[in-house]
Every structure is written in C-alpha cells, then in structure tokens.
Design brief:
With about 120 residues, the protein is mainly α. About 75% of the residues lie in helices and about 0% in strands. The protein has a domain at about 35-60 and about 70-125.
C-alpha cells in the first residue's frame, strides 16, 4: 500500500514535469507575497503534523485487552491515514506548481515525497 501511495505521487510529478509543464515555466522561482504560497506551505507543514498526531492518537486508542489482529488492523489504518495526509499535501503542491509555475511548490512536493519515504514501514527481524 505504501508503494502505491508514494509511487502515485512520484508519477504525477514525473508527468507534470516532463509532459505537461512547458520548459520555460518549469523553474520560475519567486518569493513574492501571495496567498497561494502561504496556502501551499501551510498545507505542507500542517498535514505532516496533523497526520502524525492523528496516527499517534489512533494507535493510543487501542486497549491492551484487544486481540493482536485488531491491534494490527488499527496500526495499518493509522499508517495509511498518515500516508494519505502526506500524499494529499504533495499532490496539492504539485497542482499548485502546475497552475502557478513557481518551483517552490515543486520543492514542497518533493519534500513531501521525502517525508513519505521516511515514514515507510521498516521491518526489523
């Protein structure tokens, strides 16, 4: 499930970068004050914290008396919810980059991919 979520975001950025956005519009970088930039940055950082908070809250909601299967289902749903928040932020920034043409949104979307990769499941033997 993780690879489908991360791969979907990478695929959207790849398609936007190489097939949709015109070459002259790819790397326009500007810090002019605009509400769109504030929205992109707030969505990026807000979803990282909100996804982590909701994941931890969901994990803490499991009681010790529940079965192992129920605990694993809760952990799985908490992780998927966290990944969905990160993918949503990356996707919104990719769309804002497509609409606005500012590379700041492309960088924020790539940061969301990195955060998503850092939150991948790691199995320790």
């Amino acid at each position: 499930m993780f690879y489908a979520i991360a791969g979907g975001l990478v695929m959207v950025l790849f398609i936007f970068y190489f097939f949709v956005v015109e070459p002259q519009d790819k790397m326009a970088f500007s810090f002019q004050f605009d509400y769109v930039y504030i929205i992109g940055v707030l969505i990026s950082f807000g979803t990282v914290f909100l996804g982590h908070f909701l994941k931890e809250r969901r994990i803490r909601s499991v009681s010790h008396s529940t079965s192992h299967e129920t605990k694993m289902d809760t952990l799985k749903s908490a992780l998927i919810m966290n990944w969905a928040f990160l993918e949503c932020a990356g996707m919104i920034n990719a769309i804002l980059w497509y609409i606005n043409g500012n590379a700041l949104f492309l960088i924020l979307s790539m940061i969301m991919i990195i955060v998503l990769i850092l939150n991948r499941p790691v199995f320790e033997g």
